[in-house]
Amino acid sequence: MKYKKGFTLIELLVVIGILAILLAITLIAINPARQFGQANNTKRRSDVLQVLNAVHQYVAENQGQLPAEVSGLVAATPTLFNSTNFPNLCGQLMTNYLPALPTDPSLNLANITDCAAVGGWNTGYNISRDAANRVTVSAPTTDNAAVISVTR
């Protein structure tokens, strides 16, 4: 009998099994969902700092006075930063302190460039102040159970 060159079915199944195990280990190590969550949280941290810096630039240029809508907040009560709760703050911060208001990545919206948008606007972030007039901007929606909040 002549010997035929080639692989047996058992050999092919063993190789396919090993490749499947290696692929599973690689996917677990990379974990794309966790990577996307970390990227979204990084954007949220950046956005929170951007809004807080804009508020403080406003305060610096207005002799230490918070914007009226922020100083009118009930102390230690987070309020969603949207057109309903802050109809004038967008206009006060835009162009002078921010090129556009950032939005939470979970909203799947572009950054806000028009404060008079039809139907209103929503950043997805909260603003609050405490009794000492320290302003806190926070992201109520996060990935991987992260807490994103900055106070100054």
Give your account of this protein's structure.
The chain is α+β, with helices and mostly antiparallel strands. It has one domain (39-151). The protein is built from four helices and four strands, in the order H-H-H-E-H-E-E-E. It has helices at 9-30, 32-61, 68-71, 89-93; strands at 79-82, 122-129, 135-139, 148-151. Strands 1-2-3-4 form a four-stranded antiparallel beta sheet, with helices on one face. The longest helix is centred in the N-terminal third of the chain and has 30 residues, at 32-61.
List how many beta strands DSSP finds.
4
Contiguous uncertain segments of 5+ residues: none
> Tell me about the biggest sheet?
4 strands, antiparallel
| Measured distance between first and last alpha carbons | 86 Å
Overall tally of domains: 1
SSE pattern, N- to C-terminal: HHHEHEEE
Structural class: alpha+beta
Strand and helix map with partners:
Elements (H helix, E strand, L loop, with lengths): L8 H22 L1 H30 L6 H4 L7 E4 L6 H5 L28 E8 L5 E5 L8 E4 L1
Antiparallel strand pairs: 1-2, 2-3, 3-4
